[in-house]
């Protein structure tokens, strides 16, 4: 799909995602959703997909994947949505509530004090 | 300099990655917001377990799913870069610190960053207090809890009371001095924010009819 030797021109990004510029508006991928690979990279896989699977052998945040792959977050989300739909990654989404769980805040405080 | 990508020292070293523990399952966010050169990346770097990374978000009208989208009608796609760092808090919780540019034209990035964030640190250069007004205004508008940290560039002629007045700060919003280069000092800033959150939410959950700013 992506031709080698291309730089980071926008057309490269469109090629990566088959022309899509954004994932579904209800994309579940937060910047800090932790992604975990559920399979090994396979021959013939799109190279970015393979790179994500290697990166996510351990839980890795969406924003870190984007930074390491040097891709915009929006493009990274699309690639992740594809992998998620194919069952190749799982996603650990941040806990979302109107108010943060007091227990979580306490855990954050303990963690920071222990730094 | 205009660009938020200006901190060229941030690096992308994939090889230098420190992986998270296998049990990590809850990402948390704190945003550090402030004007150019106020020390956002310095603060992130001093407490982060990874060298600050840089990435970018391409924002389009349709991507900006926010309550006041009317303000950007007519704008096409814009790319904004931001720095972030990471702190592993325990086996499950991982805190991400985002350095966000405070200028008005980046507000749409904040919407994305602020979504689900625990709270924000407004980093202030007391020699350029004006740079902080807009950030504080937006945070109040969003109902995002925040504290104000004055980065010590030496020779601040202002007392905390003067800064509080200049920023027209709610008396309940904590304000402290810090040295963004110091790990201990930056830790203190983050702890102050989380302690503030605890106080805030303890008070809110005590209300029978909570009025949440949306």
UniProtKB/TrEMBL annotation, chain A:
It comes from the Bacteria. InterPro entries: DUF742. It holds the Pfam family DUF742. Residues 1-25 are annotated as: Disordered. Residues 1-11 have a biased composition (Basic and acidic residues). This is DUF742 domain-containing protein.
TrEMBL record, chain B:
One of its GO terms (molecular function) is hydrolase activity. The keyword Nucleotide-binding applies. InterPro entries: Gliding_Motility_GTPase, Gpn, P-loop_NTPase. Residues 1-20 are annotated as: Disordered. Coiled coil: none annotated. The keyword Nucleotide-binding applies. Keywords: ATP-binding, GTP-binding, Hydrolase, Nucleotide-binding. It comes from the Bacteria. CDD domains: Ras_like_GTPase. Residues 1-13 have a biased composition (Polar residues). Belongs to the GPN-loop GTPase family. This is ATP-binding protein. It comes from Streptomyces olivochromogenes.
């Amino acid at each position: 799909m992506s031709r080698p030797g291309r730089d980071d021109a926008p057309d490269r990004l469109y090629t990566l995602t088959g022309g899509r510029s954004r994932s579904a508006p209800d994309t579940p991928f937060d910047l800090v959703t932790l992604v975990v690979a559920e399979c090994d990279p396979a021959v013939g896989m799109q190279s970015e997909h393979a790179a994500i699977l290697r990166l996510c052998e351990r839980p890795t945040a969406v924003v870190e994947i984007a930074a390491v792959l040097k891709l915009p977050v929006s493009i990274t989300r699309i690639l992740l949505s594809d992998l998620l739909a194919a069952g190749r990654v799982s996603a650990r989404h941040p806990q979302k509530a109107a108010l943060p769980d007091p227990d979580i805040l306490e855990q954050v405080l303990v963690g920071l004090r222990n730094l | 300099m205009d660009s938020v990508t200006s901190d060229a020292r941030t690096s992308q070293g994939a090889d230098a990655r420190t992986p998270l523990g296998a049990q990590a399952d809850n990402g948390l966010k704190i945003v550090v917001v402030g004007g150019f050169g106020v020390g956002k990346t310095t603060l992130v770097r001093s407490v982060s377990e990874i060298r600050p990374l840089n990435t970018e978000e391409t924002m389009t009208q349709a991507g900006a799913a926010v309550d006041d989208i009317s303000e950007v009608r007519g704008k096409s796609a814009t790319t904004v870069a931001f720095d972030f760092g990471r702190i592993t808090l325990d086996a499950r919780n991982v805190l991400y610190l985002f350095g966000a540019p405070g200028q008005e034209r980046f507000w749409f990035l904040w919407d994305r960053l602020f979504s689900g964030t625990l709270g924000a640190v407004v980093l202030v250069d007391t020699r350029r207090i004006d740079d902080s007004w807009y950030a504080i205004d937006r945070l109040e508008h969003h109902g995002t809890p925040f504290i104000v940290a004055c980065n010590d560039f030496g020779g601040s002629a202002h007392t905390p009371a003067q800064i509080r007045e200049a920023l027209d700060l709610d008396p309940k919003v904590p304000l402290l001095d810090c040295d963004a280069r110091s790990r201990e000092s930056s830790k203190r800033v983050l702890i102050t924010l989380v302690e503030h959150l605890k106080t805030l939410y303890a008070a809110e959950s005590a209300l029978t009819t909570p009025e949440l700013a949306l």
